[in-house]
C-alpha cells in the first residue's frame, strides 16, 4: 500500500521546525519504526530518532504518531492508515528531529529513589516474599520508562516541575514492596511535596498512553492513599 509519512524535522534545539513528507510503498504489517529506518537508509541519512531493541521493551522509540503517544516499534501501518504523521513526544524539549531531551524526565525518576532501601543486615539467602506480596507491585514493574505517560499528562504540560506519572509508577514499585523500608524517606522528598503526586488531577491520559497496558492512574491513586496511611 502507498503510505504518506510526514515527519516533524528540527535541525537544532530551539530552531525552527518543518514538516517533511516521504511517500513509501509499505506492507500493512510493517511498523512505523520500519518506515523511519527506510527513510534514514534510503532517502535522508540525516533523520534523527532513537530506537534500540525494536521489541517494545526498551521504550526508547516513543513518539507522537497521528496525535497519540505510541512506540514506533509496536505501531503497525494497518493501525494508523495510509497517512502517518510522526512528531517528537510533546512537552519534552526537542534536540534534533524526533529526539527530545529526556534529562528532566530521568531526574524525576532518580528523585523517587528507584531502588530497594533496606538498612537491615541482609539474610544468608534471599529476602522472601509471598506471591500475594509480589502481586502488590507487579503491575508497576512493567514500566519501561518510555515517557509516553508523562508527555501525555496535562498537569506536566503546564507545570514542568511536576514529577510526572512515570516517576510515581516507579515509586509505587518500591513503596508496595514488602522488602523495602524506604517509604518515609521517599515520601518526605519530592514525591510527597508540592510538585509531587498531589499535583495529579486524574485526567487518565497516562493510562491511555501507556504502551504496556499499565493502569497508571490507579497506581497513582494507591500512592496517594499510602501517603495518607503514613500520615495517620
TrEMBL record:
Keywords: 2Fe-2S, 3Fe-4S, 4Fe-4S, Iron, Iron-sulfur, Metal-binding, Oxidoreductase, Plasmid, Tricarboxylic acid cycle. GO terms for biological process: respiratory electron transport chain; tricarboxylic acid cycle. Pathway: Carbohydrate metabolism; tricarboxylic acid cycle. Pfam families: Fer2_3, Fer4_8. The keyword Metal-binding applies. Its cofactor is [2Fe-2S] cluster; [3Fe-4S] cluster; [4Fe-4S] cluster. InterPro entries: 2Fe-2S_ferredoxin-like_sf (IPR036010), 2Fe-2S_ferredoxin-type (IPR001041), 4Fe4S_Fe-S-bd (IPR017896), 4Fe4S_Fe_S_CS (IPR017900), Beta-grasp_dom_sf (IPR012675), Helical_ferredxn (IPR009051), SDH/FRD_Iron-Sulfur (IPR050573), Succ_DH/fum_Rdtase_Fe-S (IPR004489). CDD domains: fer2. It catalyses: a menaquinone + succinate = a menaquinol + fumarate. Binds 1 [2Fe-2S] cluster. Residues 133-163 form the 4Fe-4S ferredoxin-type domain. GO terms for molecular function: 2 iron, 2 sulfur cluster binding; 3 iron, 4 sulfur cluster binding; 4 iron, 4 sulfur cluster binding; electron transfer activity; metal ion binding; succinate dehydrogenase (quinone) activity. It is an enzyme of class 1 (oxidoreductase). Gene3D superfamilies: 3.10.20.30, Alpha-helical ferredoxin. Its EC number is 1.3.5.1. Residues 1-90 form the 2Fe-2S ferredoxin-type domain. NCBIfam families: dhsB, PRK05950.1. Belongs to the succinate dehydrogenase/fumarate reductase iron-sulfur protein family. This is Fumarate reductase iron-sulfur subunit. It comes from Thermus thermophilus. The gene is NrcF.
Amino acid at each position: 500500500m502507498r503510505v504518506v509519512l510526514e515527519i516533524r524535522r528540527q535541525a537544532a534545539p530551539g530552531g525552527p521546525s518543518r514538516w517533511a513528507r516521504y511517500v513509501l510503498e509499505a506492507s500493512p504489517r510493517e511498523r512505523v519504526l520500519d518506515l523511519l529506518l527506510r527513510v534514514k537508509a534510503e532517502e535522508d541519512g540525516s533523520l534523527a530518532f532513537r530506537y534500540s531493541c525494536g521489541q517494545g521493551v526498551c521504550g526508547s522509540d516513543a513518539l507522537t504518531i497521528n496525535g497519540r503517544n505510541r512506540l514506533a516499534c509496536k505501531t503497525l501501518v494497518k493501525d494508523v492508515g495510509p497517512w502517518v504523521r510522526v512528531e517528537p513526544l510533546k512537552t519534552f524539549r526537542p534536540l534534533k528531529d524526533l529526539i527530545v531531551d529526556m534529562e528532566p524526565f530521568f531526574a524525576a525518576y532518580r528523585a523517587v529513589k528507584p531502588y530497594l532501601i533496606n538498612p537491615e543486615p541482609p539474610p544468608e539467602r534471599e529476602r522472601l516474599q509471598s506471591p500475594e506480596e509480589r502481586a502488590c507491585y507487579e503491575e508497576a514493574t512493567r514500566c519501561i520508562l518510555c515517557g509516553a505517560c508523562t508527555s501525555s499528562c496535562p498537569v506536566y504540560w503546564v507545570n514542568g516541575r511536576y514529577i510526572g506519572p512515570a516517576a510515581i509508577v516507579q515509586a509505587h514499585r518500591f513503596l508496595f514492596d514488602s522488602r523495602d523500608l524506604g517509604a518515609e524517606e521517599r515520601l518526605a522528598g519530592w514525591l510527597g511535596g508540592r510538585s509531587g503526586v498531589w499535583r495529579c488531577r486524574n485526567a487518565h491520559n497516562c493510562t491511555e498512553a501507556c504502551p504496556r497496558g499499565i493502569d497508571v492512574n490507579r497506581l497513582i491513586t494507591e500512592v496517594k492513599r499510602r501517603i495518607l496511611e503514613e500520615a495517620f
